[in-house]
Amino acid sequence: MVRHSKNNTASSVFTYAERQMTGYGTQQRRLGRDAKRGFDTCYLCLSRAREPVMACPQGHVSCRECVLASILEQKQALARDAQQHEARLARDRQARESERAASDAREVGRLALHEVGLSGAGGSKRALDEAAAAAAAGGPEDGKRARARTGGSSSSRQSSFWLPSRAPAAEPALRAPGGEVQCHAAAPHRLQLKRLVQVRFRTSAAGDRLCPSCDRALLNSSTIDLLRPCGHVLCHRCTETFVLPAAACFVCQHRIRPSDVVRIASEGTGFAAAGGPMVATRYDSALQA
Ligand SMILES: [Zn+2]
Ligand SMILES: [Zn+2]
Ligand SMILES: [Zn+2]
Ligand SMILES: [Zn+2]
Q1: The pLDDT value given to residue 23
Q2: Which InterPro entries match (predicted)?
Q3: Which of 27, 70, 83, 151 maximizes the CB count within 10 A of its CB?
Q4: Which residues contact 265 (CB under 8 A, 6 or more apart)?
């Protein structure tokens, strides 16, 4: 019972608790740790990354298999787009040329007719007939072509603009495909296969990811750095304390420049934008009496 010996409807207004119980209105809920993608979770399949790699400059980890499949798929789509674009350009060019040829033929016919008319009595009947035929050739053929373009078989089809199936359709605007392979873990950004790095986590027997330097467990809440040249993963504090001053990896002594350190991103999936406040909002219709 939310209120002692009273119905919900006994009062003209709801108490806060009653309103929460109805589930109407804007519901806000804080999302906990489980709602975020883990730092070692593949942003494509959303499970713990197998053979973790990182190919994007913004620190998104993925399985090797997932990211290669994604790159291949995107490259195929880009190639398909380019092919369609070429075909469309060729089709447009052909249409323009045939249009020009038809208008030339019409013009020639008209001139011939004009000359025959000027020469008057001198022109034979046959010449006049030929000129008329040439002039007529432009007309009906053009009409046929126009109908073929709009897909209709008669002029009444073109005028039925209120029937979507019969209205003449405009071809979509010609857009040059100029895409690149992208990582969709956050706002889309460039993904380069040649920058693919194998991520080497240190994993405990229990399966926890550990910092190889300070032995602390790496969590979603920690700031975690990846050293690009060798792929070792350390906590940010150890990177600052040991790696950057020595300019070498703590584990393998590989030479490290400050630009080689990449922060591993821990949130964002392929299905939703990331980086905003972690609050889910739901809007409902007003309570109907
Ligand atoms: Zn995966
Ligand atoms: Zn990315
Ligand atoms: Zn550490
Ligand atoms: Zn290393």
Answers
A1: 78
A2: NOSIP (IPR016818), Znf-NOSIP (IPR031790), Znf_RING (IPR001841), Znf_RING/FYVE/PHD (IPR013083)
A3: 70
A4: 39, 58, 59, 60, 185, 186, 274
> What's the 115 CA to ligand 2 centre distance in angstroms?
72
Q: How many CA atoms lie within 13 A of 192 on its CB side?
A: 4
Domain ranges, ordered by start, for the chain: 33-69+180-282, 81-159
- Both tokens of 71, joined, read 């790159």
Q: What would the pLDDT profile of 150-182 be if each residue is shown by its tens digit?
A: 444 455 555 666 777 777 777 767 677 778 899
CA 65 to chain centroid, in Å, comes to 21
Q: Which ligand is nearest to the CA of 54?
A: 2
CA of 65 to the centre of ligand 2 (A): 16
Which residue matches tokens 């939703």? 272
Closest-lying ligand to the alpha carbon of 235?
3
Q: Which residues pair with 280 in a beta bridge?
A: 29
Alpha-carbon distance of 185 to 181, in angstroms, equals: 13
Please, which residues have CB less than 5 A from ligand 1, an ion?
42, 44-45, 63, 66
Structure confidence at residue 73 (pLDDT): 94
CA of residue 214 to ligand 4 center, whole Å: 15
- The highest-level CATH class for domain 33-69+180-282 is alpha beta
Euclidean distance between CA atoms 210 and 203, whole angstroms: 6
Give this prediction's pTM: 0.62
DSSP H helices, 25-184, are: 64-119, 125-150, 155-159
**Cα(23) to centroid of ligand 1, in Å?**
36
